[in-house]
Design goal:
With 254 residues, the chain is α/β, with parallel strands linked by helices. It is built from seven helices and ten strands. The radius of gyration is 19 Å and the shape is globular. The N and C termini lie far apart (40 Å).
């Protein structure tokens, strides 16, 4: 981070979408067309369709992704370094780079960053407004994430030793052999769908993507398509007409 003072604007929110060019599971994924638009464009559209988001920024190492993001209405004020666009770079690494750039080249940061992953294209702008409203009302919340009931309970998952012996992946205190119980009798567990993360900038500056007080924003699991490979993309294409929010389509002129 640069030493110069940067003001954090109370209540302000910026959207940040991370798109790298080196996808191995589905080459060219972030510019592949879904509903006639590059995948990255739907992440940008979610930010633009949300009244509380003042800016939408794309962090990418790839000029094709940058061009698609600009065409959808995002700012691409910097190029992400190659070492932050490989398989081992974390979201926090990329956010830290973006924060460092803004701190060096600008004078303000928002109170909140909204992460808009291009690989989870189905979002309702109202989710973002709800999360921001809750965090503005409760300063103790460090992050809000979209979650849905997990389709497979971790209480029936296993670790495997080198000799093939199985041991439970997760214990349930006070309960004997939860892995042999009916699924309906086990505690509900929630999956982070990746569609939305709202993070306080001070949390990011402290070196965490979430902080310690993470709250849930419940969404329907049917909307939670995470595109990693070709099959996931086919599923997204099949669900597009049903799941893509009209506000996002309107932003992109569909």
């Amino acid at each position: 981070m640069n030493d110069k003072s940067v003001q954090i604007l109370p209540g302000a929110a910026w959207g940040l979408t991370l798109g790298r060019g080196g996808s191995k599971g589905l080459p060219g994924k972030n510019v592949r067309l879904l509903g006639g638009q590059p995948l990255i464009a739907w992440a940008v559209a979610a930010g633009r369709a949300t009244p509380s988001i003042e800016r939408v920024i794309c962090s990418t190492d790839d000029e094709a992704i940058a061009a698609a993001a600009r065409a959808a209405g995002a700012e691409v004020p910097f190029q992400r370094p190659a070492e932050l666009a490989n398989d081992t770079a974390t979201d926090l690494d990329v956010f830290a780079h973006a924060l460092g750039w803004f701190s060096e080249h600008e004078t303000v940061l928002p109170e909140f960053f909204v992460q808009l992953r291009p690989t989870t294209p189905f979002r309702d702008p109202a989710w973002i407004e709800t999360a921001l409203d809750r965090m503005r009302a409760d300063p103790s919340i460090t992050c809000m994430r979209t979650v849905a009931p997990t389709p497979v309970t971790p209480y029936k998952m296993w670790r495997r030793s080198a000799d093939g012996k199985l041991s439970p992946a997760l214990d349930l205190p006070g309960v004997s052999e939860p892995y042999n119980m009916p699924r309906q009798a086990l505690p509900p567990v929630f999956w982070h769908t990746g569609q939305l993360d709202v993070i306080r900038t001070e949390t990011l500056l402290a070196g965490s993507m979430t902080g310690a007080n993470i709250h849930a924003l419940d969404v329907a699991i049917e909307t939670a398509v995470d595109i990693d490979g070709p099959v996931d993309f086919v599923v997204a294409e099949q669900l597009f007409e049903q799941m893509m929010h009209p506000a996002l389509r309107a932003v992109l002129g569909d």
